[in-house]
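#data-curation
PF: Archiving a pair of folding outputs for the training set. Convention for this channel: one message per protein, sequence first, structure tokens after, nothing in between. First:
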Amino acid sequence: MRGSSAACCAAPISVSTAKIACRNESPLFQFKILCPFASLTTTSIFTTARPFLSLSRSQPDKARQKQKLWEFNCATIPSSSTVANPSNDFIVVNFYRFVFINDPHEEVAKHLSFLKGLDIHGRIYVNEQGINAQYSGPSKDALAYVEWLREDFRFSDILVQISPALNGHAFPKLKLRYKPSLVQLEGGISHLPLLDPTMRATPLAPSEWRKRLKEVHDSNCVVLDVRNGYEWDIGHFHGAQRPDVDCFRSTSFGESDSEEAIASDPLANVDKEKTNILMYCTGGIRCDVYSTILRQRGFQNLYTLKGGVSHYLQNEGPVEWVGNLFVFDDRLSLPPSAYNPEDTTVPSSNPQGCKNILFANCYICGSQVSELRHRNCANIDCNLLFLCCMECVKDLKGCCCPQCTTAPRLRPVLPGNQRYKKWYMYRELEVQNELAV
């Protein structure tokens, strides 16, 4: 997701959503404002250089000025566009690309050089098969990195997913380095034909995915959730079976050889040549990786959700989706509205939105939970990620079981949506307390 003759146009608008389109009418940039400006003036200048978008505000509503929220959708911004962004709000950016990189260590050095001085935290991994990135930062810095990356023809059309980070950085620090596997899978992925598009599943646009889901019950089709069980626990597509997996590394769909494994494998005993398999994950990379494995195992009709669930929620809203979306950063989960705040559509089976979801149960007592957000066990040496009702949080002091409540290294019970800091922070606090005593 990275004109010869000059043309200039300016027009005042008073809307809460706007799109700037190029000559072929594909969207260049979309912005949404939850507290709309009284008036906006857009100036789009097409020259031999890049199109330029400037925003000016008139008659500001000072009472709401501090409440404004900018949400950027760069998923379809061509490489020829530059955006002047007046906001310093924090965002989280996700993208990946499978492409041959001759010297990944040199590539890492180039990226480190560009990011020097920018306020970027996250995980950016590079190897011979491409790049995989999830990072946070002020939108100005975060989008500058995307623009720089798209200047490279290998990444000029890369699909970028963006979501808000309302509490600042969603990652503790920047990790930009060479990594043998862009995603962790048993046995690694360097031997997989990831650079051959024909070996990966066919990507479906969100609108096509939505159409296919409505036809699932009338066709020979399997909706395959290529995530972990705890991700399914707080949100999933209708018709998707809960994955019996706690880590993607151990995913084994389609290779069941025991009765117990077959019972939990959605692909067990299906016709590999006739069954349509609709695969989805958060951002798309796990599906791309695992689809090559399924292709090698003889599965013919493989389809993935392009851009993953985050891209779908941004374009289609929560239709056919129920619950929240688990994310691998400090936010832990996001409601569908985080990706498309103006979409008021809710799943027909859940008219009250994301509250009181019937499938979400407390890990400890099994009761229904209304807060679709995981927490870590207060026992540092356990650190289990689990869903829990507030009664059990109080009864077990933030732990996942009675045994953990007597563990020697317990962290304090966290209220609300907070998340524990790194374990060594509490070890240092414990040492300080012992010295004080």
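PF: Second:
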Amino acid sequence: MDQEDRLAVFLDYENLALGARDHLGGLKFDFRPISDALAERGRVIARRAYADWSYFDEDRRMLTRSHVELIEIPQRMGYRRKNAADIKMAVDAIELAFERDYIATFVMCTGDSDFTPLVHKLRELNKRVIGVGVEQSTSALLPPACDEFLYYDRLEGVEAPAPNVESRPRRTLMPVPEPAEPSGATDADQDAAPSGDLDELAVRVAQTVSGLQRSSSGEVNASTLKRTLLRKDPTFSEADYGFRAFGELLQHLSERNVLELAEGPAKGDPEISLPELGDREEAFGLLRSILADLPETQVALSGLKNKLRKVRPEFSEKKLGYRSFLQFCKAAATTGAVQLTWDPEAGDYLLTSTDEG
């Protein structure tokens, strides 16, 4: 038990309840999906919810059954004390952070950007912060500030009305314009659409593994990779891509030859590496073929590496002995695989494939 993370949960109840009602088709907020998700992350030892409970009288019993302490913030007659609950919640969180040093993780259940400074301060105090909020009512400022952010409407057990579920956009790691749908697209083609998102995910994972290999002398484990992906995107979840567990995602990428898995020091935490790309001639040929397939006659160096990784996510010039992608391209030009010229007007190198056929 000493190795378990201790969690303290704080609920900005009005923000969550109204967010679920207004953006999830009138869905009644339920704490149980949050409780279940947190049970997988550690031992919850404090649960507090803040609101004027005269407005949420029916919710008291649900929260009490889940052992949530209800903090009453009454509103004065004639006007709303909008920030009273927020201030009390922030003060209690900071007080607990100083008084209970064994609490490693603070769970802030809100989508309000006003809590962003609190999140920053908790992280300064060496606390891990998990955010929870309704997706459409969560400020864009809050998730990046957290170590991990869970969207309430994506948690297991939350069943929003069908129209809202169907209209919710599919998750991607970064905004990517959707390609135009071919005129002859069938239902089967539409079912296969997530592969585009998986391609973006494969590139991100391969780049992350490559960076970890460069920055650490040891092997990269699955747990380290997951933590790093969450640092890059706190809203990342393998479930958004159709995988039940992170290990299932890794196995999928291994089968696609994006990663190589080996038994790690701990059970269920495999070591991860990038597969060997092959000799330099093969890499130069790959670069030449990509240039030949692009519509432009001359292709700028900037952005070219991303195009290459979309075709071969595991590509890394470092594994071939080059310090930078420019050095790799200069070596390819030396062998005659490509032509490399400096364009002073563009302020960039331009590459041309030598494959005319």
